[in-house]
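Example S7 (structure tokens).
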């Protein structure tokens, strides 16, 4: 049966006729989806908040003019790495500084039916917070309405709704907050409060910056030029401009403050040392002057040049040792005070020229690198992160290592100093034999000289550092300022419409493609030729009748010069070639609706027009239709005739057309198969052969039931009807079964409902016929035999419905 043969078909090769059919039938799918997705794009753009972007260019530049003046390497500063500066700009720490500078203590909102808009410098009202007494109100909505008399603030607190009323410009104060609600244009505020839901929220800097930082854009522009782009994306153009500028200014201020604080600490340390030493120097000078006055020694000379030279050399070594000890103590003290990275870096100049420079400087440089690494990590990690804690532990261990090294070096230097002092004391002991006054004078003079040298050394270092620090200037600057850009960067209207329309077209074409590869209909006679068994003979095609018929009707007798009549004549001629002396023609199909009744009626009509006496028998007892086409009652017919309830004279309807009679199916019996296979039916057919030249049998569909298979086998000319754009290709499997299983020796095929083709006169692939159509006859037929219900532009089914 056909229902069992409906296997899935895939068209793997290109067929132009199928392609044209698919385009003609389903062209509206791409149009539909393009329209639907274009409409979807419209609503998407209509109800999607626009995203604005504002950018500026910042250049990083540090100059050390002191290096050129003093012809020395930079003492106090170092160009930070380009990408570490970018990470600083991206950091939550810096962004919080920027947000804090914008004074975003309160955010104002307007909620419409679909979208909620944050009002930034464009609100019809403003809220000035004075005191927030209840911190739980942070980020909680506080509604702002107008009841016709007062401005009403409403919010939830402790599970209860609280309300505060007042006038514009008044203090709204209760146990939770103290704010003032203002409006520059009260009329606009009243209108907006009536149409939208207005509210505000108190902000905490941390959560607010965490919410806003997602829109921050920091990108390198040119590493060689040390430029980077700072931008911000959001739903408010002015806010984008202000946030990007605030981030840039926060970076500039942060860099200057960090440098200034480090410089102040170093200079403070040197000044403290100089203050202490200046007192010692003054004291030594006063002691020498007092001794000179008391002993009347205005300008004593050295007693022994060699002795003094030796003492001076030893004193010089001792001074250097004491200077190094003082430096070690200063470094040790600084490390014990948990210095920052810059302070650690500033210790390196103190090591220049010292005997322990090699052993200590590398450790301090490594400590500086570790602290610099920590600062870089803090831009994206917190103090509590495991990586920061591990790094802190390494830093503390490094500091302890340096301090242990310093203690060891200090012990060694102190031991050396002790040896030098003992040598000096030994040499000074040689002065016992010298005049006592001269020796005391020399001692006091040496103390003064030592203090002056140490003071001069520290003063030189202070001057060098001050010049270098003054010459080191941070030239970070904004090259292009951000502006209010009123053109949104997203959503991109052209891109959205283009994408939606493209996907609509793609979906429509995909559906058409699926329709193409799964196309399972028979369109033209060429399709039948390719799928039918070679034993099947194709008689021709019946053109599509352009007007809707409620039932299958006899057309050719009313319009004998129409295309329909010409196609039937061609089939009649082909029948005479197959079997010139044919008496019976059995017409069947796979399923109902393929037009076998329509073909039977009009084939009978065209044969009767040739002068042969013809009768049509309706054997489709389950769904009889012949009586409907002729407009008669189905009281007496084949079912009653076979069982003997009716006579042949009662059943035959005579002279419906010249030489054309018919017999209806009769009342629907409970056992049509048994009736068609009975001997009584065979006797009736034999009797009709004596009365008529041609018997045309309208068989039941053999694709659904097997009642008519034997009738097809017994008929002189069995005809199988397919319908263009209706019958499925796998229906041809039923034809193959009739040949293989039913031992059908021959089968003739007609394709019904063929669309008119401009390349052929009838549209079914054959050139038979004169091509002349009597328009008057066509019009007469339409007027006299049926009502035209509507004109069909595309494929309409012929005949049986």
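Recovered sequence:
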């Amino acid at each position: 049966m056909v229902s069992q043969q409906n296997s899935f078909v895939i068209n793997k090769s290109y067929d132009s006729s199928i392609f044209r059919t698919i385009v003609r039938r389903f062209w509206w799918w791409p149009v539909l989806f393009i329209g639907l997705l274009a409409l979807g794009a419209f609503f998407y753009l209509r109800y999607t908040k626009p995203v604005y972007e504002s950018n500026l260019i910042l250049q990083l530049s540090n100059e050390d003019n002191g290096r050129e003046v003093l012809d020395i390497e930079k003492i106090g500063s170092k160009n930070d790495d380009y990408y570490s500066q970018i990470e600083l700009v991206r950091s939550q720490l810096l962004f919080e500084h920027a947000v804090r500078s914008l004074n975003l203590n309160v955010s104002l909102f307007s909620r419409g039916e679909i979208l909620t808009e944050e009002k930034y410098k464009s609100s019809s009202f403003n809220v000035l917070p004075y005191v927030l007494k209840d911190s739980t109100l942070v980020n909680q909505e506080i509604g702002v309405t107008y009841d016709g008399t007062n401005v009403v603030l409403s919010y939830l607190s402790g599970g209860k709704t609280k309300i505060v009323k007042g006038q514009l410009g008044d203090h709204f104060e209760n146990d939770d907050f103290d704010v003032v609600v203002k409006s520059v244009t009260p009329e606009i505020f009243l209108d907006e409060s009536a149409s939208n839901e207005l509210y505000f929220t108190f902000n905490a800097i941390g959560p607010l910056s965490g919410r806003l930082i997602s829109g921050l854009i920091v990108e390198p522009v040119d590493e060689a030029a040390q430029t980077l782009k700072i931008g911000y994306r959001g739903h408010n153009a002015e806010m984008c401009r202000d946030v990007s500028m605030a981030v840039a200014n926060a970076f500039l201020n942060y860099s200057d403050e960090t440098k200034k604080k480090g410089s102040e600490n170093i200079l403070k340390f040197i000044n403290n040392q100089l203050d202490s030493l200046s007192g010692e120097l003054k004291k030594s000078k006063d002691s020498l002057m007092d001794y000179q006055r008391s002993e009347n020694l205005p300008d004593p000379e050295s007693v022994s040049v060699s002795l003094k030279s030796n003492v001076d050399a030893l004193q010089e070594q001792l001074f250097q040792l004491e200077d190094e000890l003082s430096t070690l103590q200063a470094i040790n003290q600084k490390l014990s005070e948990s210095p920052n990275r810059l302070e650690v870096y500033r210790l390196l100049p103190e090591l220049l020229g010292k005997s322990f420079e090699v052993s200590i400087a590398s450790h301090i440089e490594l400590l500086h690198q570790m602290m610099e690494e920590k600062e870089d990590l803090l831009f994206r990690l917190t103090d509590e992160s495991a990586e920061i804690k591990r790094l802190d532990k390494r830093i503390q261990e490094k500091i302890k290592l340096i301090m242990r090294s310093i203690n060891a070096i200090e012990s060694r230097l102190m031991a050396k100093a002790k040896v030098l002092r003992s040598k000096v004391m030994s040499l000074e002991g040689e002065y016992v034999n010298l005049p006592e006054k001269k020796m005391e004078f020399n001692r006091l003079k040496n103390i003064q000289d030592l203090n002056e040298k140490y003071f001069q050394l520290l003063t030189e270092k202070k001057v060098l550092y001050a010049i270098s620090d003054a010459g080191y200037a941070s030239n970070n600057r904004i090259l292009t300022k951000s502006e209010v850009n009123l053109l949104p960067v997203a959503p991109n209207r052209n891109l959205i419409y283009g994408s939606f329309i493209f996907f609509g077209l793609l979906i429509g074409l995909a559906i058409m493609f699926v329709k193409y590869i799964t196309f399972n209909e028979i369109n033209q006679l060429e399709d039948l030729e390719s799928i039918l068994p070679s034993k099947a003979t194709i008689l021709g095609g019946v053109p599509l009748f352009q007007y809707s018929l409620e039932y299958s009707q006899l057309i050719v007798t009313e319009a004998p010069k129409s295309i329909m009549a010409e196609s039937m004549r061609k089939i009649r001629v082909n029948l005479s070639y197959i079997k010139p002396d044919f008496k019976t023609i059995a017409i069947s199909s796979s399923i109902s609706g393929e037009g076998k009744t329509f073909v039977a009626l009009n084939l009978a009509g065209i044969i009767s027009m040739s002068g042969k006496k013809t009768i049509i028998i309706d054997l489709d007892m389950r769904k009889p239709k012949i009586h409907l086409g002729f407009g008669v009652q189905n009281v007496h017919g084949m079912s009653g005739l076979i069982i003997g309830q009716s006579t042949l004279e009662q059943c035959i309807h005579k002279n419906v057309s010249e030489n054309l009679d018919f017999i209806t199916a009769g009342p629907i019996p409970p056992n049509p198969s048994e009736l068609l296979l009975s001997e009584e039916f065979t006797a009736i057919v034999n009797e009709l052969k004596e009365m008529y030249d041609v018997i045309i049998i309208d068989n039941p569909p053999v694709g659904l039931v097997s009642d008519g298979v034997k009738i097809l086998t017994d008929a002189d000319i069995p005809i199988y009807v397919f319908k263009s754009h209706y019958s499925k290709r796998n229906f041809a499997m039923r034809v193959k079964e009739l040949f293989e299983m039913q031992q059908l020796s021959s089968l003739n095929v007609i394709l019904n409902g063929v669309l008119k083709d401009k390349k052929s006169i009838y549209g079914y692939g054959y050139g038979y016929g004169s091509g002349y159509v009597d328009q008057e006859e066509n019009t007469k037929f339409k007027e006299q035999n049926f009502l035209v219900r509507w004109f069909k532009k595309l494929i309409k089914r012929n005949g049986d419905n």
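Notes on this example. The mean pLDDT is 81.
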